[in-house]
Amino acid sequence: MDRCRTQVQGRDSQEEVILMRERTLLLIKPDALQRGLLGEILSRFERKGFKIVGLKMLQMTKDLAKEHYAHLVSKPFYPDLEKFVTEHPLVAAVVEGKEAVEVVRLIVGPTNASRAPAGTIRGDLSNSTSRNVIHASDSKETAAKEIHRFFKPHELFEYGLSHDSWLYATDE
Ligand code: IDP
Ligand code: MG
User: Which tens digits make up the pLDDT trace of 77-130?
Assistant: First the structure.
């Protein structure tokens, strides 16, 4: 089970117990913002039942890009990738839910959007291996590092939603 209990102060000073599930990092890339796809992309995660627990707009620096894409800096396409992700703002988000890392990657689809299945974000909204509208962490370990890279602890929120109890069965 990928959740733990955390206690927060309720509205009437009563302690409220909220279930904190797995979290993962999303970057809604500059191409998505330029194309007016931010709302469309965020709404897909909301509709799936993921809770947005962190959200900000930022412009990546070259240093941040090199850190985030460290596994790609030696690739021939890296200079173009760095230019692409640093020249315009993007939106970073942390979403929370059951098996968030794996399920979010399924919703996002494979890197090469031209071959991404219809119904995935990349499959529906891009036809490129590079300008593929969204980043999502690829493992629980990466998610922890990437959330820390883009968000300070006080920028992440633990809160209940009125429909929380409708999202999962009690044994999930
Ligand atoms: P991912 O985004 O699906 O996790 P990664 O291999 O981690 O894929 O690559 C990070 C990003 O680098 C991709 O989303 C894409 O924007 C870019 N990229 C990856 N491979 C290529 C390539 O072969 N050509 C151009 N850009 C690429
Ligand atoms: Mg990746």
Answer: 999 999 999 999 999 999 999 999 999 999 999 999 999 999 999 999 999 999
**What does the pLDDT read at residue 20?**
67
| Cα(21) to centroid(ligand 2), Å | 22
Q: What is the CATH number of the domain that holds 76?
A: 3.30.70.141
Is the pTM higher than 0.90?
yes
Contact 51, 96 (CB under 8 A): yes
59 within a domain of the structure (yes/no): yes
Which residue from 24, 27, 67, 81 has its CB within 8 A of the most atoms of ligand 1, so it is best to mutate?
Answer: 81
State in Å: Cα 33 to ligand 1 middle: 18
Residues 6+ apart with CB under 8 A from 129: 111, 112, 113, 114
The vertex-129 CA angle with 125 and 131, nearest 5°, equals 55
Per the structure, the count of domains in the chain is 1
